[in-house]
């Protein structure tokens, strides 16, 4: 989870830099867009890996899912992450709505990460002896 949060933080920083370059009419460094996409792809993979680990671990430990709000929070985070990733690939001068969707999904994703972190703490307490 920590790596996902680090990726989210790095994406916020690189996204802000791209926004600043665009709004101030400065050329952005050529590597910045690739870095932002690479970190974003890594975050998608990390979130999907966390989902898989959580589902397998919960099924292995409890035999079923749905013991807490953590599953709901996790599924929402996965959905928001995928919405953000897909909308990022659609951003173009002709599809400005995709940029708004991307930024909006990331703003809500912050709340999702908070929720999944808080509910995850409760789940971790169940696993500890």
Characteristic terms for this protein:
129 residues, mainly alpha, membrane, transmembrane helix
**How is the biggest beta sheet arranged?**
none
SSE string: HHHH
Question: Between the first and last Cα atoms, what is the distance in angstroms?
Answer: 21 Å
Which structural category do the helix and sheet elements fall into?
A: mainly alpha
How many helices? The count is: 4
Rounded to the nearest angstrom, the radius of gyration is 17 Å
Secondary structure: number of strands: 0
Helical fraction = over 70%
Beta-strand percent range: under 5%
Q: Please state the average pLDDT score.
A: 93
* Count of the separate structural domains: 1
Uncertain runs: none
> From the structure provided, what is the oligomeric state, counting identical versus distinct chains?
single chain
Molecular shape: elongated
InterPro entries: DUF4079
Keywords: Membrane, Transmembrane, Transmembrane helix
Protein name: DUF4079 domain-containing protein
